[in-house]
Amino acid sequence: MRYMNASPKSRKPNRLKGYDYTQAGCYFVTVCAQDRRCLFGDIIEDQMVLNEAGMMVAHWWSKTESKFPHVDLGEYVLMPNHIHGIVVIVGADPRVRPHDKDPESSKDERIEQRQQEEHQQDGFQNQGGHMGPPLQEIIQWFKTMTTNEYIKEVKTGRFPPFEKRIWQRSFYDHVIRDDDDLGRIREYIQNNPLQWAIDEENPAYRVVP
After folding, report:
1. Any bridge partners for residue 47, and if so which?
2. How far apart are CA 69 and CA 97, in angstroms?
3. For residues 139 and 170, what is the distance between their CA atoms, to the nearest angstrom?
4. Are residues 100 and 113 in contact, defined by beta-carbon separation less than 8 angstroms?
5. Euclidean distance between CA atoms 145 and 151, whole angstroms
6. Exposed/middle/buried for 192, CB within 10 Å: 0-12, 13-18, 19+?
7. Along the chain (209 residues), what's the average pLDDT of each consecutive run of 10 residues?
8. HEC profile for the chain?
9. Taking the C-alpha atoms of 18, 165, 65 and 63 in order, what is their torsion angle to the nearest 10 degrees?
10. Which of 28, 135, 155, 158 could lock onto 174 through a cystine, CB 3.0 to 4.6 A?
11. Hey, CA dihedral for 44, 29, 53, 98, is it positive or negative?
């Protein structure tokens, strides 16, 4: 599966032309840190050991299911500078949960929710039978929440500073087409820490001519 370890320059376009990302489906998603900076932990003895920033990112990834009730998360792995995960969009007529009414929601979540509703009123959201946000909105929410919290912790001195942004502007996805495809991707995710030494996302990895 070449796309899994392909470098950003050699990857195929990350959006399928004409594909409706609001429809029910199963996706293999990769989100990379800007400039491949290793912000989230280290691989030690073939296992990913999260630092505080990594634990924060993992927390917001898991919160995706409560933010978007029509989303189910499958296998995922957070690596030193990227995250791989399976995202399943399910159900008919799903809607974003109204966090303005949730006393446990953070101020950032409530602000982000109001902004999303304003975008929807302006016609930003795709029209059609599926009312939930498309895949790119889901990933953007994850990026926004992790970036906001990371910035707060930089100001307290807990997290190291970064340049420009935490995440690359876009992300990479693959539509999971059948059980065999799903099985291969699950195995890849589970074994990802074991392959870190030869992972092209690893800044220390060098291709030998």
Report:
1. 44
2. 7
3. 9
4. yes
5. 10
6. buried
7. 33 58 84 95 96 97 94 96 94 36 48 44 33 83 96 94 90 91 95 94 73
8. CHHHCCCCCCCCCCCCCCCCCCCCEEEEEEEEEHHHCCCCEEEECCEEEECHHHHHHHHHHHHHHHHCCCEEEEEEEECCCEEEEEEEECCCCCCCCCHHHCCCCCHHHHHHHHHHHHHHHCCCCCCCCCCCCCHHHHHHHHHHHHHHHHHHHHHHCCCCCCCCCCECCCCEEEECCCHHHHHHHHHHHHHHHHHHHHCCCCCCCCCCC
9. 180
10. 28
11. negative
Q: What single-letter amino acid sits at 126?
A: N
Residue the block writes with tokens 């159900």: 91
What is the model's pLDDT at position 129? 33
Report d(CA 208, CA 185) in Å as an integer.
26
pTM for the whole structure? 0.72
| pLDDT at 125 (0 to 100) | 34
Amino acid in position 170: S
Distance CA 53, CA 50 (A): 7
Q: What is the pLDDT of residue 9?
A: 39
CA 61 – CA 24 distance, rounded (Å): 19
Q: What is the pLDDT of residue 104?
A: 46
Q: What is the pLDDT of residue 159?
A: 94
> What is the distance, to the nearest Å, from the Cα of residue 141 to the centroid of all Cα atoms in its chain?
9
